[in-house]
């Protein structure tokens, strides 16, 4: 039995419209956090998303809720990417994932805050997501270790600490706005994981 089309103004249409508005706010916030930092106001996000301030405040009553939603959304994409890498057999997949994590964090302040526990600690705010990401890093680390492509004394916690440290190095070098320079710094850091 097929579902009848939504009647204009019905609850079902409003729910779909609310979902679209929430998604538009998330995408706009993601872009603005990446280009302008976490200081951008909720009202500015609403203006750029083409929705009213009340729409943003209804979905995200505080800016911290929006930070978390943006970071969680992007980190879910990283976890999905990590799952795909774990399902493959590339012994260098660990370096691909870590490079992607550093690039994503360097380009987006909300993700960087989540990965470094600056504005909020992902392990507390979204423990299942944090555990999944760390578990995939550990699985890929073990695969790399077995292939001899990573030093044998590195632990998953140390690898995650290197990712967080990469953001400080990128910021210190003033490379946050240069994808090439931040990627170069990430490569230097990740080379420290390779066997001597």
Automatic annotation (TrEMBL):
Stored InterPro entries: DNA-bd_HTH_TetR-type_CS (IPR023772), Homeodomain-like_sf (IPR009057), HTH-type_TetR-like_transc_reg (IPR050109), HTH_TetR (IPR001647), Tet_transcr_reg_TetR-rel_C_sf (IPR036271), TetR_SbtR-like_C (IPR049445)
Top-level lineage group: Bacteria
Keywords: DNA-binding, Transcription, Transcription regulation
UniProt name for this protein: TetR/AcrR family transcriptional regulator
Pfam families: TetR_C_43, TetR_N
Residue ranges the UniProt entry marks as DNA-binding: 41-60
HTH tetR-type domain span: 19-78
């Amino acid at each position: 039995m097929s579902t009848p089309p939504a009647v204009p103004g019905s609850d079902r249409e409003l729910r779909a419209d609310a979902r679209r508005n929430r998604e538009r706010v998330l995408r706009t916030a993601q872009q603005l956090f990446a280009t302008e930092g976490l200081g951008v106001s909720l009202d500015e996000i609403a203006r750029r998303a083409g929705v009213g301030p009340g729409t943003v405040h209804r979905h995200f009553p505080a800016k911290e809720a929006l930070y978390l939603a943006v970071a969680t959304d992007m980190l879910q994409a990283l976890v999905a990417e990590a799952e795909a890498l774990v399902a493959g057999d590339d012994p260098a997949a660990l370096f691909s994932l870590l490079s992607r994590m550093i690039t994503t964090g360097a380009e987006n302040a909300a993700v960087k805050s989540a990965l470094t526990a600056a504005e909020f600690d992902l392990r507390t705010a979204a423990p299942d997501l944090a555990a999944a990401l760390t578990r995939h890093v550990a699985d890929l680390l073990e695969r790399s270790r077995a292939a001899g492509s990573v030093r044998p004394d590195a632990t998953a916690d140390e690898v995650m600490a290197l990712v967080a440290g990469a953001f400080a190095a990128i910021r210190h070098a003033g490379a946050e706005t240069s994808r090439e320079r931040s990627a170069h710094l990430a490569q230097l850091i990740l080379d420290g994981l390779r066997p001597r």
